[in-house]
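quick one before i forget lol
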Amino acid sequence: MNVSGFRLAPLNGVYSKDPTKVVQGRSVYMNHNNGFFAYWCEKNEEWRFSIPEYVEMIQQGSCRGWAVGMAIAFPDVSEWYEMVDNGWQPANIVTECLQPWHASVQDDE
């Protein structure tokens, strides 16, 4: 899913679900720039965007983040907020569903 409109430019970009990375019971969505990822915050029942350096705290139940998406499923988020001057502000975010990416598998012969 392509996400754009955040004031903090590195939050924008293409996010893909990574089923090999699970945080607070759900797979995360990694930004292709590897600077941010979106994860389900169980405590607040919302999607949050954070940096990889905080993954250990988040795995223990912390919900640190630079942005928030309100929905049960990440692709369904339509209400967005971002941290601006130490406070949550509504964000005008545009999302675009991209065609699923499929890794090519080659047989080792």
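fyi Confidence is low (pLDDT under 50) at residues 101-109.
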